Amino acid sequence: MFAAPRVLLSVALTACLLVAWPGSLPSAAASLDPQESDLVTAVNSFRATRGLARLAVSDTLTFASKWMATDMAVYNYFSHTSRDGRAPVQRMSDAGYPGPQTYTGENIAGGYSSAAEVLNGWINSPAHYAVLTNPNYRAIGVGRAYSDSSSYRNYWVMDVGGIVDAAIAVPPMDLGYHAGWAGQSPDVTLSPGQTATMVVALRNNGYRGWYRGYPGQQANLGTADPLDAQRWDVMHGWPSASRIATTTTAYVGPGQVGWFQFQVRGPSTPGRYVLRVRGVIDGATWLEDPGVYWTITVR
């Protein structure tokens, strides 16, 4: 059984006095997967026991953290300096955070499988503890990435700063998730209550694999137009009314085709129903929209 070594690194930076920062950047907000959310909660709970301010989740810091965790996992390295030579404050700034105008810090970890283990490791390391308990910080972003071909498999990044920014992340950096259409089953005609099995194939055009069962790295098929539409009318055995299926295989690597199989049920009222879908990595990003849809005719 694989047992990754565990490593920690920490960096804290100081900058000039806080300044106002505009919040008019285009919307492209990053979101936290469940384990990333667990780490944010754990960090804030730990700070609360020491009378420190709660850290607000920043979209820009979240995007910067996710990018760095992804880059380390995919390219198998462990450092505060990314492969392209950028220090933490530069990566935060590139994601839209006002890094040069405030205090910033970064903790990273490798080989830990849960948020609780990561936090415990940081608490027991003086350098990481100093970042966790710094009273100048007000905002946080967390990223986590997994690669079974890397040295530590699990990579964690926490970026913190002294400004609660209103800006939304402008993604100048690629998180590595992309997809294109590769095939789908035809439209169906059903009787009310009758079910049918549908399939769609999406090619992984990114540089990052899709791992079934790993939050933030699992490719799902979501409802579209509008995104996250609740399709109670045709769903049958889906994980939820807006999440239709995940991949039939445990891993879909770059260049490979992932298959999604699911069932639909004919509504009780005859007519034509259009089901539009799109790939999504929940907790990371929606995949490209190739315009996948079916027309379900109910007799």
By helix and strand content, what is the structural category? alpha+beta
Low-confidence stretches: 13-29
Fraction in beta strands: 25-35%
Task: Please describe the biggest sheet, giving its number of strands, its sense, and whether it closes into a barrel.
Answer: 6 strands, mixed
Secondary structure: helix percent: 10-25%
Compute the gyration radius: what is it?
Answer: 21 Å
Number of strands: 17
Characterize the overall form. Answer: elongated
Taken in chain order, the helices and strands follow as EHEHHEHHEEEEEEEEEEEEEE
Q: Look at the structure and give the mean pLDDT.
A: 88
End-to-end CA span: 54 Å
Oligomeric state of this protein: single chain
* Individual helix count: 5
Describe what this molecule looks like in 3D.
The chain has 299 residues and is of the alpha+beta class. It is 18% helix and 32% strand. The strands form four sheets. Strands 7, 10, 12, 15, 16 and 17 form a six-stranded mixed β-sheet that branches. It has a five-stranded mixed β-sheet with strand order 1-3-5-4-2, with helices on both faces. Strand 15 and strand 16 form a beta hairpin. Helix 1 packs parallel to helix 4 and helix 2 crosses helix 3. The chain is elongated, with a radius of gyration of 21 Å. The protein starts with 6 loop residues before the first strand and ends with a strand. About 6% of the residues have low confidence.
Key terms:
299 residues, alpha+beta, 17 strands, 5-stranded mixed β-sheet, 18% helix
